[in-house]
Amino acid sequence: MDSRSRVVVGLLVLAFLFTVGSAHSFSPFDGIQRSAFQLVS
């Protein structure tokens, strides 16, 4: 996967997690977001 694809996928994942986290007010949302950042980077 090239760097551009990684960035696009990462942004989509973060946007999805942000939407879900906001809708349900998850407490561990920050942990999920950090995990996503680790997966992308």
Automatic annotation (TrEMBL):
Protein name: Transmembrane protein
Signal peptide extent: 1-23
Keyword terms, alphabetized: Signal
